[in-house]
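Protein in question quoted in full.
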Amino acid sequence: MTDVLAQGVDGSAIARLLTDARKRTLDLTSDLDDRQMIGPKLAIVNPPIWEIGHIAWFQEFWTLRHVRGEGPLVEGADSFYDSAKVAHDTRWDLPIASRERTHAYMSAVLERVCDSLASGKPTPEEIYFHLLVLFHEDMHDEALAYTRQTLGYPKPVFCRDLSSSNNGDSLSADVGVPGGTFVLGAPRDSLFVFDNEKWAHPVEVKPFRIARYAVTNAEFAAFVDDGGYGRKEFWTDEGWKWLHDGGSPALAQSFAKFFDREQTTARAVSHEEITHPLYWKKDGGAWLQRVFDKWLPLQRELPVIHVNWYEADAYAKWAGRRLPTEAEWEMAAATEPESSGRGISPHKRTFPWGDEPPTKERANLDGTAPGLLPVSALAAGDSAFGCRQMIGNVWEWTASDFLPYPEFAADPYKEYSAPWFRTHKVLRGGCWMTRARLIRNTWRNFYTPDRRDVWAGFRTCAE
């Protein structure tokens, strides 16, 4: 969004962003063979060939058909690509078009959209829906990236070569954030926000201390090696049930059928094997971690990733700490201390470092780095209170349930937020694959607490 704001909101600027998003989508799938474009039937991924068609359909539906009143480019596409109506587990069995025909459909939609943007200054309604489909594609691209991780495909072509960073001690410290009245959520003058961020409203927050850094692999490994997965006192009832009864043998079986040469992932998702994070394994007493299709030594100073809410909460209890609420997280990321040091300033920053757009010196975003960076990196991105990497690197679980704000009203894309309230947990901050134009301090992500395939880690607060 900062790119659009810097240039002024005109059709050519939006067209460039849409073209950039489409290039990312194709880069994420162009090297996959036909078998990989279908993949195994799993509850946590989509078949990539379906997903890229859905991205194009969503763009056509909202910007050409809904806004401009045009007819569908492909008759019957709604019965294939409308995710609100096409059940997830049927998407592998649909008579989906070939890769060539799907690419042709994607190209035709984008060309028609860009042509429409070239014919004068877009209206506020057109701006809204073009940004909606832009960010929808960005989010699906992040999902395609973690699908590649889930299925053990190679790293995306736009990532630099994976490399092992030097091991070192993590830097641990808390920063104090004074309590008070805090305005949670997005301001009304925002150019574009999703409905679950609407609108900013006052909440009371008690003083708290929050970790300056996300929890590292070294810190989480200590929990694992201390038998943390087997100690019920650290787990919620739901987490303990997930640990012992909530695994998915069917999912493991699907993996086993798909990976005829590598059974490790199948074992990792079986409930009998949940004794450590997904994609970890021991080799001669040392932990290894699978990053896309490569097993690498576990890097101690990198943030732990691919842990779910139950695991994050259990670690926090083991460490004598807790997860931050989403109000605490946003307060630590967005506010500034008063000159007296006893309260917070009324000004809210768009990003932890201020209102300037993200740069590679401030945040690990856009997926062009080799992967995660050490938790001590990117000091230029610190918040006013000294919290590091609150934007980028890893999404961060919070203690909060995903609930509507007081003035919530569903936007035209009604399926985005409302169906998921009260069953999901809130994550904040983006990850290394999140597009920089998508993220800000008020952005709310949400997943069910059992999901550990996504790019999620966490930081903790003092009790």
Q: What stands out?
A: DSSP finds 13 helices and 13 strands in the chain. Residues 1-7, 164-170, 248-271 have pLDDT under 50 and may be disordered.
